Amino acid sequence: MLRYLSVVILVITFFSSPVSNARPAVTFYTESYPPFQSLNPQGELVGFSIDVLHATQQYLDFDINIQIMPWNRAYKNAAKNPDTFIFSIGKSEKRLQQFKWVIDFYTVQNAIYKKASRSDINIDSKEDINRYTLALPRGDISLDSLNIQHKHPNVYLVSNQTKALKMLYFERVDLINNNNIGLSGSVKALGLKQSDFTVAYVYNNVELGLATHKETRIELLEMMQHAFDTIKQNGQFELLVKKWFPEPVSQQTATQEVSPITTKPDKSS
């Protein structure tokens, strides 16, 4: 029988297993980002990445302690504290310099999205994005992927993708960045229609997965990798992929070249 994952919401509210004190606990930082990880109406932690961690738990000698918080805070905590992990984190060259990569969960397609009704927005190159306002989560991989280097009045930094989508829906910004899976999760979380939004520009594919601090003990990293290899070999991982992503999401051809974008100031919603 699998042990329960203990959950911390904003590092305040704890949900722990009655047997969680039997073994040491290791902290896994994350944000609410459906359908990978989020809280359902009953306050239970659910999602594809959560199910993956549940499946690996029985092959570990430690209990997984999940802490949910805004992504930027989760990222800073994971970068600061050895023997901790972070998920579902996008893989980039910059992040591979900051963390040890543990496992890949799923490959997604990053794109710029607009409201379907905005026929006036036309983006043929990354430079065209400069003409419009854009909402991005703090610490998001898009800051690296779009090579945002300077402050600019057209970029609004928010705490998560759901808030960015809400700004787009109410036309407080012209564009947002998300991936093909994450957008669907945010749309569902807000009770909106997928048809209200459309791709304006595709720029790359990225692996989402699990990473750890550079100084995390090698035995923890290898144990996590072994547990993941086990659920891939015994078919559990494939079943979880089919459960959460039963129909492959169509992907457009990504633009290969990404040059620096004129950048923007820190404004939160």
Automatic annotation (TrEMBL):
Where does the signal sequence lie? 1-22
| Tree of life domain | Bacteria
The Solute-binding protein family 3/N-terminal domain sits at 25-248
Which InterPro entries does this chain map to?
Answer: Solute-binding_3/MltF_N
Q: Does the keyword Cytoplasm apply?
A: no
Q: Which Pfam families match?
A: SBP_bac_3
Ordered alphabetically, the record's keywords are: Signal
Protein name (record): Extracellular solute-binding protein, family 3
In which organism is this protein found? Shewanella frigidimarina (strain NCIMB 400)
